[in-house]
Amino acid sequence: MNWSEANKLALDLFPVSTRSEARAKGHKKYFTGKICKHGHISQRYVSNGICCNCLLTRLRNNVLIRVDKQHAQQVKDYVKEVIEMK
Ligand SMILES: [Zn+2]
What is the largest CA-CA distance in the chain? Predict the structure, then answer.
């Protein structure tokens, strides 16, 4: 599965909500259905609003050097989800 197929799948899988709605429901992630500035249609983290795909890409490129423990766990969970989607 490539990213564009994953993007289409994301539209089917995730209900669209706003960050404040997701926070009110206690969700860790939300999905706007909109494309991020780097072209991903992906869930975003409620805690920081960052696109999950962007974060994964940044980690893969070793650009994001400092990650707190909670954030690192979210990233690990997301990587696991992506791996399981294949
Ligand atoms: Zn992105």
Answer: 33
CA 71 to CA 74: how far, in whole Å? 5
pTM exceeding the 0.70 threshold for the entire prediction: no
Between the CA of 83 and the centroid of ligand 1 the distance, in Å, is 17
* N-terminal to C-terminal alpha carbon distance within the chain: 6
In single-letter form, the type of residue at position 16 comes to V
24's tokens = 């009110």
C-alpha distances (whole Å) from 79 to each of 17, 70, 75, 83 are 22, 14, 6, 6
Predicted local confidence at residue 64, as pLDDT: 46
C-alpha of residue 50 to centroid of ligand 1, in Å: 7
The Å distance, Cα 1 to ligand 1 centre, comes to 17
Q: How far is the CA of 48 from the centre of ligand 1 (A)?
A: 13
Measured distance CA(33)–CA(58) in Å, rounded? 21
